[in-house]
From TrEMBL:
Keywords: Oxidoreductase. One of its GO terms (molecular function) is oxidoreductase activity. Belongs to the short-chain dehydrogenases/reductases (SDR) family. This is 3-oxoacyl-ACP reductase. Residues 246-266 are annotated as: Disordered. NCBIfam families: PRK07231.1. Residues 254-266 have a biased composition (Basic and acidic residues). Gene3D superfamilies: NAD(P)-binding Rossmann-like Domain. InterPro entries: NAD(P)-bd_dom_sf (IPR036291), SDR_fam (IPR002347).
Amino acid sequence: MTTPYGLEGRSAIVTGASRGIGLAVAEELSRAGARVCVTARDPDAVGRAAERLGGVGLAGSVADPAHLRELTELALREFGRIDVVVNNAATNQPYGPLMDADPDRWREAFTVNVEAPLRLVQCAWRAWMGEHGGAVVNVCTEGAGHVGPNVGAYGTSKAALLHLTRQLAGELAPKVRVNSVSPGLVRTEMARFVWEDAEDALGAGLPLGRIGRPEDIARAVVWLASDAAGWITGADLLVDGGTRVRSAHSPADTVHDRLRTRAPDA
């Protein structure tokens, strides 16, 4: 059955794709007809994801430039083309006040959240997209547009990724479209420390009445990667359940309350 997305016969690379948003994106791309190459750090999880998708996978860290080159080579070797790149892998470390941030961990946040997406796009551009075109979607965050307690490194690096998205959109047009999706709070392992034991309360504080699910973000990513969004580049699609308009719905600011009192596993 033909889908409205126009991804049949195309191939995609998705980072951070062994669970959560990344896995949901890879699954949605596969359903839309794309062949998918996935990566994440856990070899077993990558293997399971690749088998589940009928695609290929390569375990490793996106912070390693050699891994990104190998990933690109794998996708091109297996599929003969690279039409879509989804930069989803991210770290929320270091967590805490910026005055307490270890400079090395701060640097790591930018390596994973900003430098790695650029390097992977460079690899895909040189291998295929520069000649044949394609689409890039970066997963940013609703929090890139404002400040929040203890998430300074994450938010600042994602704000840099947002600007990188726009810069690349300008530089790579018209061959390659580059957009981003900015999720609000989503029910993932990475955000578990925020929503665990308070999912209903947090959802009740949003205009749409619930926190996000990985598939909410996946559908937005796949739409931006598809021909259905063929006249869109340099855009950021906010997928947040109404977080930005919450003040007109409810005065509660419970997400920030949770950020002040909880921390992710290091």
